[in-house]
């Protein structure tokens, strides 16, 4: 009998958080770590393995490996990125593209050589362009996605949860579009405890209703509140997002998450191929259905802006 196997590619701040979160979930019996800085993959694996003697921990096999080891992986999470000297990480995610493009090509070439069945979950930025590039390889389209605006959506629910003093999980809401400056909230489908956004003032008259533009700005800024205080690193919440997706696929949960996926011109009518975040049903077959929700005029405008921004980035790769 086989256990569930996870491969993590890129063991920096994000990859090591993915590892720590994955271990806590107890979903995986085997975890392989791949990073060109062999000593980093080895050390992260060893550090986690040392906790294996504690009564709270399951006896999981964790080791530094190579691409041959992804052949029987169920889930592959990619958090590889160019390492900037002196930690001078560009704040604009798009500025990571030049350095990360060859890294993603190298990773995809290696993955397709060994498997066609693992769910690929990309974290590497710029998220949407990266998934567009990954989708250019001979790999099942339904088995690749980027966490995209999943993290932005969690920030949105957290922000509104604090504002209305309710559990963020009581809020059904998501961000769509670009994982970046052009992410936008879809207020036309947002509910708090089933109450539509525009009716919230009836229930919470003391709380002024923020405009969609104000919410967008606050959510986009939230990433930088972490980035600026943690010296260019945001690692914990995105790691949890990636593992939530992994769990959803492994348990065939059919949850709906906003994730970045390849989009054709027949979806939302933008000519040519692109990739951006839309709510998707995720299950054992990966991305099982994209929910192309009806958008209001402001949201259509913002989606067009997001597509333009991502297209500009994609054009730099051609
Ligand atoms: N999508 C999101 O919501 C989100 C959130 C946070 C961070 N990120 C992104 O996650 C990525 C990782 O960030 P980080 O803070 O962990 O960076 P980091 O610099 O700490 O780690 C990057 C790791 O990737 C490894 N790497 C480099 N080239 C590689 C290759 N060819 N194959 C495999 N591994 C390789 C490096 O050796 C390093 O260990 C970045 O692109 C960052 O922008 C995305």
Automatic annotation (TrEMBL):
**Is NAD one of the keywords UniProt gives this record?**
yes
Record keywords: NAD included?
yes
User: Which branch of life, at top level?
Assistant: Bacteria
Gene3D superfamilies tied to this protein: Lactate dehydrogenase/glycoside hydrolase, family 4, C-terminal (3.90.110.10), NAD(P)-binding Rossmann-like Domain (3.40.50.720)
The chain positions of domain Lactate/malate dehydrogenase C-terminal read 149-315
A Gene Ontology molecular function term of the record: L-lactate dehydrogenase (NAD+) activity
Pfam families tied to this protein? Ldh_1_C (PF02866), Ldh_1_N (PF00056)
Residue ranges of domain Lactate/malate dehydrogenase N-terminal in the record:
5-134
- Set out the biological process GO terms recorded for this chain's protein: lactate metabolic process
In the UniProt entry, which residues are flagged as the active site? 179 (proton acceptor)
Q: Which UniProt keywords apply?
A: NAD, Oxidoreductase
Q: Which residues are noted in the entry as NAD(+)-binding?
A: 10-15, 35, 100, 123-125
InterPro entries, per database record = L-lactate/malate_DH, Lactate/malate_DH_C, Lactate/malate_DH_N, Lactate_DH/Glyco_Ohase_4_C, NAD(P)-bd_dom_sf
**Which family, according to UniProt?**
Belongs to the LDH/MDH superfamily. LDH family.
Q: State the protein's name.
A: L-lactate dehydrogenase
């Amino acid at each position: 009998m086989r256990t569930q196997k996870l491969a993590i590619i890129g063991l920096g701040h994000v990859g090591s958080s993915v590892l720590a979160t994955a271990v806590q979930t107890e979903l995986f019996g085997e975890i392989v770590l791949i990073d060109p800085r062999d000593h980093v993959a080895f050390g992260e694996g060893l550090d986690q393995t040392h906790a294996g003697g504690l009564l709270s921990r399951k006896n999981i096999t964790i080791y530094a490996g190579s691409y041959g080891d992804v052949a029987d992986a169920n889930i592959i999470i990619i958090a590889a990125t160019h390492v900037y000297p002196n930690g001078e990480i560009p704040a604009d995610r798009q500025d990571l593209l030049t350095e990360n493009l060859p890294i993603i090509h190298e990773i995809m070439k290696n993955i397709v050589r060994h498997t066609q069945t693992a769910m690929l979950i990309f974290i590497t930025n710029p998220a949407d362009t990266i998934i567009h590039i990954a989708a250019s390889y001979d790999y099942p389209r339904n088995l690749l996605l980027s966490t995209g605006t999943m993290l932005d959506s969690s920030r949105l629910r957290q922000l509104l949860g604090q504002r209305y003093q309710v559990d963020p999980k009581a809020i059904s809401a998501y961000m769509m579009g670009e994982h970046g400056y052009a992410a936008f909230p879809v207020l036309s489908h947002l509910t708090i405890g089933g109450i539509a956004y525009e009716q919230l003032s009836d229930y919470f008259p003391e709380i002024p209703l923020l405009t969609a533009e104000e919410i967008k700005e606050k959510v986009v800024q939230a990433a930088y509140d972490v980035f600026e205080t943690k010296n260019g690193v945001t690692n914990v919440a995105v790691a949890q997002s990636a593992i939530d997706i992994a769990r959803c696929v492994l348990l065939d949960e059919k949850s709906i998450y906003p994730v970045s996926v390849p989009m054709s011109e027949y979806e939302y009518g933008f000519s040519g191929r692109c990739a951006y975040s839309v709510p998707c049903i995720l299950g054992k077959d990966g991305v099982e259905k994209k929910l192309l929700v009806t958008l209001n005029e402001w949201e259509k405008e913002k989606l067009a802006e997001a597509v333009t921004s991502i297209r500009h980035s994609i054009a730099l790769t051609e």
